[in-house]
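Here is the promised in-class demo. Please do not try to memorize the tokens; focus on the logic of going from shape to residues.
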């Protein structure tokens, strides 16, 4: 009898430990990117970086996520999901430690790619961990780690400038974020010692050709469109506000507000979406908020900067929504790994041109109206793909 009572206790403790590991890993999934925007001017001045190269810098995340993320299912089948996630955190910590001390733009981009390659592996595999360990709480747990993700992004956006001022050097202000990856690493090293159910399922479940499934393509396009929007916001929103005459500090706080809104909204949205048969209505509504936010920036960024920040913060919750839909559309953890890799890999490939195009249009026109008009138009395919991705289907 005591043995029977002990087993559920161990199970609860194991789930709680896994949840802590998920949250710590999720904190790192955006701070490597959002810490750059508020000090982009200082980085460009310090490294002699042009606007075009800065546009490439904002595209490095999507390139890494599209290419490296596709390797995650194969690696997970060989060694298990937890060891791959631990390895991703090691890459992240190494890249974040070294890149601020790069001697030029090329090396800075390369070291950014190293850290972002680590994030790409973690990005793809976390939904499968959720499906494996929390199959009846997919929406709630996805919402929780989305909250952690947004908290990390918000902290980096809001405090990188003060940290830079305190250290007296933007390099130290960026480099200190490696500590977050080091804090997240130990739990995953412990989990990596276990033969996870995800690995077992991946090895025993016949491969699913997700590329032949219409719902997989709908998820991929939706992921690509929301990623384009997210990385344009991450890469250029602070600069848009600064070019409109706002201070660097206020631009950073406005950008942090956009990220911070994802904390309560992401948690609520994922929990609700996980209980619904269809998420199409949510996806369409978020797209309409995006049209309103980008249209406001197009008209005048300084006219109502807080309103535009709030509207864009709402549309950014498309990310936790699509993660929830990926976990819901797969019938088991192994399928979720493949679906996650496909949706994120193809989605990020779709998103690669976005930040580069926005930077090139800014250079060509000398302003932000043409780039922002493009972002308004891109909300239409996002709404369309979200409608189809949200329908009640499962692979």
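The designed amino acids, position by position:
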């Amino acid at each position: 009898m005591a043995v029977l009572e002990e087993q559920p206790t161990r199970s609860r403790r194991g789930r709680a430990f896994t949840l802590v590991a998920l949250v710590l890993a999720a904190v790192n999934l955006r701070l490597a990117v959002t810490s750059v925007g508020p000090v982009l001017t200082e980085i460009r001045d310090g490294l002699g970086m042009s606007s075009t190269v800065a546009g490439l810098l904002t595209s490095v995340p999507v390139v890494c996520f599209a290419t490296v993320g596709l390797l995650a299912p194969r690696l997970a089948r060989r060694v298990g999901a937890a060891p791959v996630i631990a390895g991703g955190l090691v890459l992240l910590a190494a890249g974040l430690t070294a890149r601020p001390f790069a001697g030029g733009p090329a090396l800075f981009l390369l070291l950014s790619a190293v850290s972002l390659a680590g994030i790409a592996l973690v990005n793809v595999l976390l939904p499968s961990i959720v499906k494996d360990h929390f199959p009846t709480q997919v929406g709630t747990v996805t919402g929780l780690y989305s909250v952690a993700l947004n908290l990390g992004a918000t902290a980096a956006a809001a405090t990188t400038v003060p940290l830079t001022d305190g250290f007296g050097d933007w390099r130290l202000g960026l480099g200190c974020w490696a500590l977050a990856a080091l804090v997240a690493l130990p739990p995953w090293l412990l989990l990596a010692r276990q033969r996870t159910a995800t690995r077992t399922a991946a090895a025993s479940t016949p491969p699913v050709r997700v590329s032949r499934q219409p719902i997989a393509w709908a998820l991929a396009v939706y992921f690509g469109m929301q990623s384009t929007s997210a990385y344009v916001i991450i890469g250029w929103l602070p600069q848009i506000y600064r070019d409109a005459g706002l201070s660097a500090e206020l631009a950073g706080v406005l950008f942090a507000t956009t990220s911070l809104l994802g904390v309560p909204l992401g948690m609520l949205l994922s929990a609700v979406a996980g209980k619904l048969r269809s998420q199409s209505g949510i996806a369409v509504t978020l797209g309409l908020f995006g049209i309103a936010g980008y249209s406001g920036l197009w008209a005048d960024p300084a006219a109502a900067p807080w309103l535009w920040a709030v509207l864009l913060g709402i549309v950014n919750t498309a990310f936790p929504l699509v993660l929830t839909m990926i976990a819901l559309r797969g019938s088991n953890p192994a399928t979720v790994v493949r679906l996650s890799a496909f949706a994120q890999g193809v989605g990020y490939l779709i998103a690669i041109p976005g930040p580069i195009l926005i930077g090139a249009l800014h250079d060509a026109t000398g302003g932000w109206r043409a780039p922002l008009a493009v972002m308004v138009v891109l909300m239409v395919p996002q709404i369309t793909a979200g409608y189809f991705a949200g329908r009640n289907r499962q692979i």
